[in-house]
Amino acid sequence: LPQRLASLAAAAREETWQIRQQLQAQRQEVARLQEELSRARHDGERWASALQRAQREALEREAMRGAEQARQQELIRDMKERLLELLREKDALWQKTEGIDTPMPSPAPRDTGLCSRCHKDFRLLSRRYSCSRLCQGKVCHACSTAFGKQGRCCLICYQQRHPQAT
């Protein structure tokens, strides 16, 4: 029995030693896992912080894009308004200038054998007159009028000089 007790005690010591070894290995494993957990938490916090920063930056960029888009739309609206103003102004100027166009005497044709107004040939019996007013052209009797002692002038020059006569 003492031998049996001694062997049981030895076996119990051996078992205790093995259990202590396992316990120590498990403590080391727990310490390693806690360290890994700590690193994972730290990484998680870092990633959460980076995510929040990225979301904040994305919101800021979106706000800037919205503001820029609003400015561009306002600019487009202003440009359209200005275009309409310019078109109205152009139309008003066009209407003002509509009545200004008065017929100016055309320059005398280079061929002095034709009337500068009706382009009739001057012949032996059709007399040619030099317009003594603006155009200095050669005109026939039908296309000219007497202008007192100063001679004759074409009808267009006479009408420009005396608008009440028309």
Automatic annotation (TrEMBL):
InterPro entries: RUFY4_dom, Znf_FYVE_PHD, Znf_RING/FYVE/PHD
Coiled-coil segments on the chain, per record: 16-43
The organism's place on the tree of life at top rank: Eukaryota
Pfam families: RUFY4
Keywords carried by this UniProt record: Coiled coil
Keyword Heme: no
Keyword Protein biosynthesis: no
Residue ranges occupied by any RUFY4-like domain in the UniProt entry: 9-95
Name under which the protein is recorded: RUFY4 protein
Organism for this UniProt entry: Cephalopterus ornatus (Amazonian umbrellabird)
Lineage of the organism: Eukaryota, Metazoa, Chordata, Craniata, Vertebrata
The gene coding this protein: Rufy4_1
